[in-house]
Fold this protein.
Amino acid sequence: MRIILQFPEGLKQKAQEYAQRYEKEGHEVFVASAPCYGACDLCIDEARAVGAQKLVHVGHAEFMKMDVKGLEIEYIPYFDTLPKEILENAVEKALEMLHAHKKIALVTTVQHIGQIEEIKKAFEKGGKKILLEKGGKHVRHEGQILGCDSIAASKAAPNADCVVYFGGGQFHPLGIRAGKPVLVADPYLGKAYWITEEIEKLEKKRKGAILASAHAKNFGIIVSTKNGQFNLTGARLAKKELEKRGKKALLLVSNEIFPLALEDFNMFDAYISTACPRIGDDHSIYKKPIIDFGDFKRVLELMDAVDGRKK
Ligand code: SF4
């Protein structure tokens, strides 16, 4: 069989090991080398180009069921197994900062889901009550969050004193909107820290961009061809609604969204993105407001209010 393997950034160093395993079984193996940021981003085009019969996406849990004729798709989630002392050290550091917080909404990425029971027990040993919830349609496990889905946190938060994100990096915890303080317990740095202020700053930026775009006249509407991000219906609707309000709008299609590639479209005052909702996190690198499609309704309401055409 001809197989194409895909790895997210951070797991590409495992490519050879996986490839050899399949080659030993007699398969012909290709490895997709383009950047891959999430489970939403399967290398279907590369699979078609090389005539692969199977696509193996390593690292993430299944994002959505994809029916691609002649192509079998398999997700192999990558579960990290942290040594006991590293896991417990991160929990201990978190406990030192959680004196006033008894009930905790615990979340993590798929990478640590295999150890969620262990993490939970370590917090319980420290006298905490742990709340675990299952997120939206793109997640597979209780307590699991994605960069675009922190529902596991927002569901558990109303009954909790705070949210604890167990894992490395800031991308995932910065996406948590739960109305409660968020603490990061990072086993790789061996420390814990509050990230609530940074989340609030991002939220302020998001609101500022929404406000600014309500006064914009010319919009670029971003469509990503990544299978889990593709939203042509939303993009067409956005164009229609903007034109109804006398605005100009152009549909922009690409696989990946680069600030540099958008730079020469200097006619636009703002962008509406129907792609990954985290694209607009760093508005400053795009030099224009980027509004996620999820906030588009709010933009229209503000436009109507500005025009005195309240509905
Ligand atoms: S849409 Fe964005 S945040 Fe969600 S899985 Fe894809 S890359 Fe990650």
